[in-house]
Amino acid sequence: MIIHLYQVIILAISFVMIYQGIRRFLEGKSSQTFYKLAIRIIVWGSMSFIAIFPNFTITLANIVGLQGNMTAVVLSGFLLTFFMIFKLLSAIERLEQDISELTRKESLKEIKDK
After folding, report:
1. pLDDT at position 80, please?
2. Using an 8 Å Cβ cutoff, are 86 and 47 in contact?
3. Within 10 Å of residue 36's Cβ, how many Cβ atoms?
4. Which terminal Cβ of the chain has fewer Cβ within 10 Å, N or C?
C-alpha cells in the first residue's frame, strides 16, 4: 500500500481537530458540547477512515451509482468545507458569548446607576 501526501495531511489535520475538540470538552469550555464533540469525532474520524482506506470510496461510489475515483478531490473538498464550518461555528459562538456577557454587564451597570 502506497501512502500519498494528501493522506498524511488529512490524517494530521483530523488528529488535530479531534484532539482540540476533546481538549475543549474536557476543559469544560462552554463552546464545546458533547453533541459538537460527537459530530467532530464522526466527521474527522470519517475523513481519517477514507484517507486510510481510499478504495472504500470506490465501493461507495459503485453502490450509489457514481463512476470514477475522485477520492483526493472529494476528500479535500469535504475537508476544507468542514474545516471552514467548524471555524465559523466557533467564531459565531464566541461572538454570542461576548455579546451576552456585554449585555449583562451593561444591564447590571444601569441597575447600579439607578
Report:
1. 77
2. no
3. 17
4. C
* 8-state DSSP, 31: T
Q: For residue range 31-58, what is the model confidence (pLDDT) as tens digits? A: 677 888 888 898 889 888 988 888 887 7
Residue ranges per domain, the chain? Answer: 5-113
Q: How many CA atoms lie within 13 A of 88 on its CB side?
A: 6
Rounded Cα–Cα distance for residues 112 and 110 (Å): 5
The C-alpha cell 470519517 sits at 46
Tell me if 14 sits within 8 A of 40, measured CB to CB: no
Task: Provide CB contacts within 8 A for 57, sequence distance 6+.
Answer: 50, 69, 70, 71, 74, 75
Segment 2-31 mean pLDDT: 86
**Half-sphere exposure in the Cβ direction for 23 (13 Å, CA):** 6
- Cα separation of the two ends of the chain: 73
d(CA 79, CA 32): 20
